[in-house]
Write a structure and sequence with these properties.
The protein is of the alpha/beta class. It is built from 17 helices and 13 strands. It has 2 domains: 153 residues, Rossmann fold, CATH 3.40.50.2300; 239 residues, 3-Layer(aba) Sandwich (Rossmann fold). It is elongated, with a radius of gyration of 24 Å. The C terminus is likely disordered. The protein binds adenosine-5'-diphosphate (ADP) and magnesium ion.
């Protein structure tokens, strides 16, 4: 285990002292045994030390550490945010894998820097005033995962209003664009845009699941990219009906989360692969009899572990389920389904005000979709006027074909083509941006 020290934290000195003597190593082994880490996984080799932030990247690129310990009081003028991004982009270990960063900090929950760290996959954060050498050693051997640090990301931002953080992919993309300017093509293959679209409505039965299934299906078919449809509706998930599929049990995912080895493969093994379009995978949700073993934070963990360009999430109506809260707070587009009735208009507007005020989700994130229009329902003009502050996603007629399709287990397509509008446009625009750098 190759270790790079970029820290002047006093706890590190005593680690070094311990590692230098037989007795010290024995003592560390003893405390690790106590914590369920009985054997040294691999001996620790301190490959270099950095005293100033300015030297970190150049040294790390040469010594290719497995782990870098970075302390936020390390002297220097480079912003830590910049260091995080540069390490992520430029520093790999000898096997060509990302160097893990153990970040020692006195920052508090809600700090924008910690949120950013979590977004960049820095999941080994040791925060607080009282840090012991053994905490650091344990982190070296037992990498943290998202659930260890989710609190840093999910806590409301200290002082200022809650702002939406950029998605992992947006951050990555920024880095990649910077890198492409330098014509380093190596990173291009890592360009992964990610859009997370949540389907929500004020009441049940308005058409969330119908639309989510249709959108996921059309996206997968049209783009050929990986699309994940996540059924976050608690108790009675129902996306699978649209694909004539048997729901999968979530036991293995629960087990992997508890034992901290959840990764994309584990989730994928427990998703349904749609037989007609293999790039479409469906997480079929939490059944009633698993609900007690499923922690509320598991929704976030699943969503954040999947690195798919498109994630479509179906939810419960209202705001009383953790899956719905996780989806609404963690997506970059909230598609809201409204029925052509005064009841639906009023309920929806009231909830939207609540979500905007309490959670700080900006109104630009919402797309309003009017479903089930018929010649006896409210007309499109009335509906559009009621939601004139919001962007409209589309209108869809009431038709028997939808019921028929549901019974056959085939997602609807005809009449629902608008569900792709915004998504494809943005995708193509971004692609061109990146390629235009390359052409230079
Ligand atoms: N445009 C439509 N025309 C006819 N029936 C529809 C339409 N949209 C949805 N439905 C039907 O309404 C019912 C509720 O839709 P669903 O998508 O399950 O709502 P939600 O997920 O919001 O509870 C389903 O039986 C579905 O087939
Ligand atoms: Mg539904």
């Amino acid at each position: 285990m190759r270790l790079l020290l970029a820290t002047n934290h006093p706890a590190i000195d005593s680690i070094i002292l311990k590692l230098e003597s037989e007795a010290g190593i024995k003592e560390l082994e003893k405390s690790l045994k106590h914590d369920g880490l009985p054997r040294w996984v691999r001996p620790i080799l301190i490959v270099d030390e950095v005293k100033y932030r300015e030297r970190l990247i150049e040294k790390a690129k040469v010594c290719r550490p497995d782990v870098t310990i970075l302390y936020d009081k390390l002297p220097g003028t480079v912003e830590l945010e910049v260091l995080f991004e540069e390490i992520r982009l430029e520093v790999k270990n000898e096997a060509g894998k990302d160097t893990r960063i153990i970040f020692i900090t006195s920052l508090e929950q809600g700090s924008p820097l910690l949120r950013k760290a979590v977004e960049l996959g820095i999941w080994d954060i040791i925060a607080g005033k009282d840090i012991h050498p053994i905490d650091i050693i344990k982190k070296i051997y037992r990498p943290g995962n998202y659930s260890d640090v989710a609190r840093f990301k999910l806590a409301p931002e200290a002082e200022s209003q809650i702002k939406r953080m950029p998605l992992v992919s947006e951050v990555k993309e920024k880095i990649v664009e910077k890198e492409v300017e330098k014509i380093v093509i190596r990173e291009i293959k890592e360009v992964k845009r990610q859009r997370i679209i949540t389907w929500w409505s004020a009441s049940g039965g308005e058409g969330k699941t119908t639309m989510a299934a249709s959108q996921a299906y059309q996206l997968a078919k049209k783009t050929g990219e990986k699309v994940a449809l996540l059924d976050f509706k608690e108790a009675n998930p129902s996306c699978h009906y649209w694909f004539n599929a048997m729901p999968k049990d979530t036991l293995e995912i629960i087990d992997a989360i508890e034992k901290r080895f959840l990764n994309q493969t584990v989730i994928e093994n427990n998703m349904v692969t749609y037989s007609k379009i293999p790039n479409l995978k469906i997480f079929t949700g939490i059944d009633l009899y698993r609900i007690n073993s499923w922690g509320p934070e598991y929704f976030d963990i699943v969503k954040n572990t999947l690195k798919y360009p498109y994630i479509i999430i179906d939810t419960n109506a209202g705001l009383f389920f953790s899956g719905t809260v996780s989806a609404l707070q963690g997506s970059d587009m909230v598609s809201v389904v409204v029925e052509p009735t005064y009841k639906s208009i009023e309920e929806t507007l009231r909830w939207l005000d609540f979500i905007k005020d309490k959670w700080g989700i900006p109104k630009e994130h919402f797309r309003i979709h009017f479903n089930k229009l018929s010649f006896k329902s409210l007309d499109e003009d009335t509906l559009r006027k009621a939601f004139n502050e919001y962007q409209i996603g589309g209108t869809y007629k009431y038709t028997d074909n939808v019921i028929e399709a549901l019974n056959k287990g085939i997602p609807v397509e005809k009449g629902f083509e608008n569900l792709l509008n915004d998504l494809l446009f943005i995708q193509e625009k971004k692609k061109n941006n990146i390629l235009s750098f390359l052409k230079r």
